[in-house]
Every structure is written in structure tokens, then in C-alpha cells.
Amino acid sequence: MEKIGIIGSAVVGQTLAKGFKQHGYDVRIASRSPEKLRDFAAQSGIQAVTSADVASWADVIVLAVHGPAAEDALRTAGEGSLRGKVVIDTTNPIAEAPPVDGVLQYFTGPNDSLLERLQRTFPQMRFVKAFNSVGAARMVNPSFKGGKPTMFICGNDAAAKGWVTALLDRFGWETADMGNAVAARAIEPLAQLWCIPGFQRNHWTHAFKMLWD
After folding, report:
1. In the chain, what is the greatest distance between 2 CA atoms, to the nearest angstrom?
2. Mean pLDDT across the stretch 55-79?
3. What is the C-alpha separation between 159 and 200, in angstroms, rounded?
4. What distance in Å separates the CA atoms of residue 29 and residue 49, rounded to the nearest whole number?
5. In the predicted model, what is the mean pLDDT of residues 104-128?
6. Bridge partner residues of 60 (DSSP)
7. Interval 126-168: pLDDT, tens
8. What was the pLDDT predicted at 32?
9. Is the pLDDT of residue 189 over 90?
10. 3-state per-residue secondary structure call for the chain
11. 114-121 and 70-77 helices cross at what angle (nearest 10)?
């Protein structure tokens, strides 16, 4: 049984932590202040620890923090403990500025991505971008009349992507592997597109679907 460590205590981290536990994984969730997760831990049965504790304990890490805090969160967890581990990167480079006509503002440009920055900064970690283009309510066991939705992933490590693809299948997704980390330049903006119906029409329960010929 893989040991899954969630770095991030907000709704995405909590949702994925419960999803992993539901599917039989051993899970712990990390926060700078684990005591603020006391109620969540009591309700879910998932242990709340520090990021350093979860980094040294887990086989696989899920990075579920705000984009601007991603690099600092990994440094706090401990680069040595995360060396060689799969890191599922759910983050988006959302700027500290309001949306413009429903379009989120990013602190990256069209020829850059947060995933690439993280991979360059932490070259010994095996990053896979996933879960960044759908709301938390549909991340685990999504149900749509049109069938399984598509999760777009990318990363430089083929074995890491294979593990994430198998996980997504268990979670009820079909996976579209878009290639190496550079593909995050296209995958991360999907969150901008996904959020437009939410900001404009308060619709937050949709997902993307790739149709193959």
C-alpha cells in the first residue's frame, strides 16, 4: 500500500486526502499548523502532521497549495526527504490579483509554467501535473452523463506518469498524457478556462473531455 502525503490543508488537499483514503491508500495531510486540522482529522480519521513529517514518511506527495507558495512549501517540507519521489502538482500560477471578466490572472507567461519552474528548482523530484483543471468537488469519482472526463497530465518522468495514470483510473478519470513538463504551459491555463463559467454564471461542476477520432 502506497503512503500518500498531502501538502496543503485547504479544500483541494482535504478532498484528495479523503479520496486516497477511500481508495485504500495510507494517507497523512500536512499543514504549517497541524492543530488547525484537528476537526478534519477527527472527522476523516486522517492524521494531520507537519510538512517535514509527511515528506519523510510518504512514498508519493500531493502538492495542493496556492501557486505562489508552492516552492516555499517544498523547501519547508525538505528537499532531501522528497528526493526521487513522485510529486503530483495540483497547483496553478494564480496571481494575487482579481479575475478580469472572469479570467484568472497568472504570474507566468505563455512560454513558461509553474510546473517547469518547480522542476528546474527541484530537479531530483519527479513532478507530474494533474488535478489542476477541475474543481475539488469533481476530483474523486466524478460522475457525468457523457462518461468519464479527461484529466490532462504532463511531466518528464515516464514511470511517475504511469503511476499517476493508474491512480486516475482508480479515481474514475481517463488520462491524456500531453508529454514532458513543457506541456504545462498549455495545461495550467485550462484552469483559467474552467473558471470562466464559475465566475460568470456560478457554474462550478463541469470538467473537460477529450474526444478521439
Report:
1. 51
2. 98
3. 39
4. 6
5. 98
6. 4, 86
7. 999 999 999 999 999 999 999 999 999 999 999 999 999 999 9
8. 87
9. yes
10. CCEEEEECCCHHHHHHHHHHHHCCCEEEEECCCHHHHHHHHHHHCCEEECHHHHHHHCCEEEECCCHHHHHHHHHHHCHHHHCCCEEEECCCCECCCCCECCECCECCCCCCCHHHHHHHHCCCCEEEECCCCCCHHHCCCCCCCCCCCEEEEECCCHHHHHHHHHHHHHCCCEEEECCCHHHHHHHCCHHHHHHHHHHHHCCCCCCCCCCCC
11. 30
pLDDT score for 196: 98
Rounded CA-CA distance 84/120 in Å is 14
Q: Which residue has the cell 491524456?
A: 176
Determine the residue type at 59.
Answer: D
Cell of 161: 506518469
The percentage of the chain sitting over the pLDDT mark of 90, rounded to a whole number, equals: 98
The C-alpha R_g of the chain, in whole angstroms, comes to 16
Cα end-to-end distance, the chain, whole Å? 37
